[in-house]
Specification:
This is Deaminase. One of its GO terms (molecular function) is 5-amino-6-(5-phosphoribosylamino)uracil reductase activity. InterPro entries: DHFR-like_dom_sf, RibDG_C, Riboflavin_Biosynth_HTPR. Residues 10-151 form the Bacterial bifunctional deaminase-reductase C-terminal domain. It holds the Pfam family RibD_C. The structure is a single chain. The chain has 180 residues and is α/β, with parallel strands linked by helices. It has a single domain (11-178), classed as Dihydrofolate Reductase, subunit A (3-Layer(aba) Sandwich). The chain contains four helices and ten strands. The strands form two sheets. An eight-stranded mixed β-sheet has the order 5-4-3-6-1-7-10-9. A two-stranded antiparallel ribbon has the order 2-8. β9 (160-168) and β10 (171-178) form a beta hairpin. The longest helix is centred in the middle third of the chain and has 11 residues, at 99-109. The protein starts with 10 loop residues before the first strand and ends with a strand.
């Protein structure tokens, strides 16, 4: 998709994961992430990101965590949902369109920078439809034992090409291109 139209940025699934493969703990808990990872940990990722497309569940988890110091300026925020909230959030644009249209809308807002995909369901749907260019994974040094897995059952095989891995403190960052 990155070669279509005027888009120059990539579509990147961005995930934080425990060593045992969970992106959220029991009850969708994600507070453990901020023990290791802040926006300052990966300034190059922040600089390359122009917009975020977020699933509704991830958006709700983020709202519950809003009291923590989790500021992450990834540009314009879009939430893909079948049921937009009755009370709007001025920091977010809610989209109820199809997935391809949502990705195109968010990519357009990214202004030539990368579009980050956040949320297990939205990411899996984007991967299944061939809309993702890269996967960026931050592996944290802990085992959660239970929670939301990195990929849902039924995702199917997605071939990846590793192209970068770096260490920043206790965080290991892995980057993969999605083979199309």
């Amino acid at each position: 998709m990155s070669d279509v139209g005027t888009f120059t940025g990539k579509v990147v699934v961005n995930r934080v994961m425990s060593l045992d493969g969970f992106i959220a703990g029991p009850g969708h808990a994600m507070d453990w992430i901020f023990e290791y990872l802040t926006a300052d940990t990966v300034p190059e990722v922040m600089a390359a990101t122009g917009a975020m497309l977020i699933g509704r569940g991830t958006y709700e988890v983020g709202k519950r965590m809003a009291d923590q110091d989790t500021s992450y300026d990834g540009g314009a925020q879009f939430v893909l949902t079948h049921n937009p909230p009755a009370e709007p959030d001025p920091a977010v644009t809610f989209l109820s369109c199809g997935l391809e249209e949502a990705v195109a809308t968010a990519r357009s807002a990214a202004g030539g920078k990368n579009l980050e995909i956040l949320g297990a369901d939205v990411a899996a749907q984007c991967l299944q439809r061939g809309l993702v260019d890269e996967i960026l994974v931050y592996v944290l040094p802990l085992l959660l034992g239970d929670g939301v897995r990195f990929s849902p059952p039924g995702l199917g095989r997605i071939d990846l090409e590793p192209f970068s891995n770096t260490q920043s403190g206790a965080v290991t960052m892995l980057r993969f291109r999605v083979r199309k």
